[in-house]
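Example S7 (structure tokens).
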């Protein structure tokens, strides 16, 4: 599973940036990891707080890999320049594009460079502060993906690279909202942790290669504080669940991409690594179209 809080501790990327929010994460606090139910409201609140507290560390650890204006679909490093999952770059010019779970808006910056008109949306105000720090001439919107603040038919395309979908209790709510704001024939492409990863420990080494739990157990992964309040939540859907979610939400699944680990990528990112990436998929990318 993604468990985004498990970023590598040895940073070789950037110096710390916008570093005042240490008080949000009390020194020495280590949340308890468990599997339990977590509904829509609890998941949204926990993850908004987690990303606000951890945005600085995330951008320090992964900023160089992500770049300021690259469109990377996942830890394998599959780039939209090569993948063209949204369509040929030359056809993006003039398109209205919504990026969901934009973080520091790296993907939106790349889209703008192709002549598209992106809007970068994230639930975390702190992540969007990093988008402001890097810069760009496109709108930044702080909002929940399950209640998009846009009129029907506002966008030609929508995209999400590990944003929102792994962290929401009701992915169909998000998919229906995306379908609502897309124009007829619009495309939505999103990447998530490959569902098979939930059966394996979230470790980059050999210990992450043996099945440790049931692939069919949909119980959310929750990190909670000493009083049992969720501070991070991630939700599991099987591959079949994802396909059904897409179908009942008014989309057609036109492609499912499982990126192979490339030889050039020698880095580790949480539970992603060359060792595991050469044996089992780490990312699933769903290419969907609205009728």
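Recovered sequence:
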């Amino acid at each position: 599973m993604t468990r985004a809080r498990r970023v590598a501790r040895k940073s070789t990327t950037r110096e710390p940036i916008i570093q005042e929010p240490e008080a949000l994460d009390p020194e020495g606090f280590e949340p308890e990891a468990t599997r339990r139910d977590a509904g829509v409201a609890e998941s949204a609140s926990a993850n908004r707080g987690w990303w606000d507290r951890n945005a600085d560390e995330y951008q320090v650890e992964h900023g160089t890999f992500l770049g300021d204006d690259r469109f990377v679909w996942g830890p394998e490093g599959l780039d939209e320049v090569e993948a063209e999952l949204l369509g040929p770059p030359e056809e993006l010019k003039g398109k209205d594009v919504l990026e969901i779970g934009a973080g520091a808006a790296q993907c939106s910056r790349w889209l703008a460079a192709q002549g598209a008109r992106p809007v970068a949306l994230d639930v975390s105000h702190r992540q969007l502060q990093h988008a402001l720090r890097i810069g760009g001439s496109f709108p930044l919107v702080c909002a929940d993906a399950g209640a998009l603040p846009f009129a029907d038919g506002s966008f030609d395309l929508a995209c999400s690279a590990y944003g929102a979908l792994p962290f929401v209790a009701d992915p169909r709510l998000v998919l229906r909202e995306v379908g609502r704001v897309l124009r007829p024939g619009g495309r939505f492409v999103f990447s998530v942790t490959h569902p098979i990863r939930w059966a394996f420990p979230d470790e980059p080494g050999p210990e992450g290669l043996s099945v440790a739990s049931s692939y069919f157990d949909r119980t959310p992964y929750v990190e909670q504080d000493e009083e049992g309040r969720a501070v991070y939540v991630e939700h599991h859907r099987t591959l079949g669940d994802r396909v059904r979610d897409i179908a009942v939400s008014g989309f057609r699944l036109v492609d499912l991409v499982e990126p192979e680990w490339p030889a050039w990528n020698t880095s580790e990112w949480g539970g992603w690594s060359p060792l595991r990436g050469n044996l089992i998929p780490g990312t699933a990318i769903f290419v969907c179209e609205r009728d």
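Notes on this example. Strands lie at 32-35, 96-100, 117-122, 140-142, 155-161, 182-193, 221-224, 230-234, 251-257, 283-290.
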